[in-house]
């Protein structure tokens, strides 16, 4: 596939903006959530909302580092759009009576670690590292989770909201893969050296240390909700297929790394990967929340209110 | 507002006289458009040179330009008053180092009295067309009021920042709440207890916000790009200083000279990328870090372009104001406006009782505020389509006897506009005197001289911070800098000090 025209994409993004008030939050259908579904759905929505929110923060970091003005502006919008998704998901939770007053639901510890990492380090990480990880997260987590949600939940308002969200996400993916291909252009040798340097970058190591357990933890959560593990993995394979469809995409060293990583992740028999990472998941669950610094203030911008 | 017309281009008055009853006035020696600092200063210096047959056309009912229109709460100059005033009319009584709008307007009005300028001014005359009559060798200015005023020479002093601009936001006309532009303040509107939005975070906004936050129940500030903000050394003038200035005027001139040199040295930081630029950026970052503790807010307020690329702002109370409990900074892109307020891309509608547009002015990079027609009916806006050009910022080939103030590439980034203005005004006096002394029908700059001047200037501009990649109102859509002067004020003054006759074509009357 030819690379997309980013200027046209920006125009498209600008012309397809929507807002929370486009959705009738009091429309009938909220009672279609079954009593049995409710507690698991609550946890699920909490994770989903936080994933959108960390995705938002990652786009903010990418906007800062974007190589062109157009891309910077696109990422600035994507940052806001991911925030919009998080807001919408919070509004759904509100609709389903899952919010404790005005309280933000607590993120799980792995997400909490990612938030911490994004806050401290993401602005300093080269854009091509995030530019590869983010499409992966979008496909695997957003993609799989949303699909699952729509298969299980009957509330029409939820379907209406996710139709809009998915339209946005498809643009995020288009740009994500296009940028991956852009980065794949040119001398691979230099890229590999640069990449090797990045892998030794303590910020990146820390990021990896937060990201791996997040994925395994999400897998566990998803399985607990009744989604087949295979569905999640099918999504991760989609990343490999789309990202690897062109030579440029394939020659992006970060694509290669993440591809291998997702293969390990999908292969439950790969004990070298899963034993330590599952151990990490377990270990992180013992981190006392008190030890973590206060949540950064960007987290407090989430809201379920369509108007302010 | 009283009779001070808002700086927006006034709508055509209802009582516009039909074209058939055009009122032609006897030609003056010099016709000036605009009674702001530039127009009035020109009149003073012409008068001092013995040229007293002057007509000044002013669209508003009052003098003052920028300082008549920009009287929003907190409006003040950001160049010290002792430098932001005319050297030929120094004021020992400035109450503070950076005077407020009202005090500056008072200074301008006092100047009009002292030099008895009122007799030259035709108020409420909005120039809609300026055309050169080659046979007669006179410029004719047609006004919306149906008058035609003429002059042997014409001076365009209609101001670089005099037409308020509204942002290009879709649905802006749908908004039903109150709207106020910073350059046409509504002093009758009571902001107390209101939900107020401010669009823009430029020079005017950072002065308005600290004032509005005191009154509004909730103030929401919409920022597109953060600007560099440095501390402002503002203080009240001690009485002894005023007394000293009055008794020993030389001491005020000395202070002025010192301020001038201090600002000149800032050119090193502002105009070119130098170690001083780094230093200035450090000052900006230090100021931010000292005043803003929250990391995310600080990130939102940190500029991502080189200092000097756009106008540097000075303020001590802007960052603290943003952190008041009733204030909120929004950096999400604005997507549209609705009946109730502003929608941003994170999906939220921000509703307001009143929206303040601190969104600046229409700056004509590539046009003219009204049609200007020169020799052979040529049109200035057409020639300037790809970026305005002039000779030494002041004359344009094909437009004889016409002088521009704040013409192309005369903008200061680091020093008082009035310093540049004085150089321009004295040049205009020289030009007009040449026309009179040699009894010329036309004095026209040669095209080659203009081209040569411009290619040099553009070469020098390429090396400046303004052309270092940020988008600013200094640049045209295509990135041509037709606004700023790439050098020290001293260099500019030197360039303007002599009128080189070899660069002009002189045709006797
Ligand atoms: C808020 C603000 C703060 C500023 N602070 C500083 C500062 O600190 N330091 C600095 O150096 N510069 C500053 N400036 C720049 C400032 O514009 C100049 O310093 C200076 O005041 C410009 O004077 P002027 O006479 O050229 O234009 P203006 O003051 O704008 O005067 C032009 C006059 O022409 C009239 N006019 C316009 N069009 C027509 C027409 N078609 N027909 C008839 N009359 C017309 C207008 O009504 C106006 O009275 C500031 C500008 C603004 C807006
Ligand atoms: Fe998302």
Automatic annotation (TrEMBL), chain A:
Give the organism, scientific name: Marinobacter lipolyticus SM19
Q: What is this protein called?
A: Reductase
Which SUPFAM superfamilies does this chain map to?
Ferritin-like
UniProtKB/TrEMBL annotation, chain B:
The UniProt keywords, alphabetically, are: Monooxygenase, Oxidoreductase
What InterPro entries does UniProt report for this protein, alphabetically? FAD-bind_Monooxygenase_sf (IPR051209), FAD/NAD-bd_sf (IPR036188)
Keyword Repeat set for record: no
Please give the start and end residues of each transmembrane region: none
Q: Which Pfam families match?
A: Pyr_redox_3
For region Disordered, the annotated ranges are 1-22
- Give an example GO molecular function: monooxygenase activity
Query: What protein name is recorded for this chain?
Result: Monooxygenase
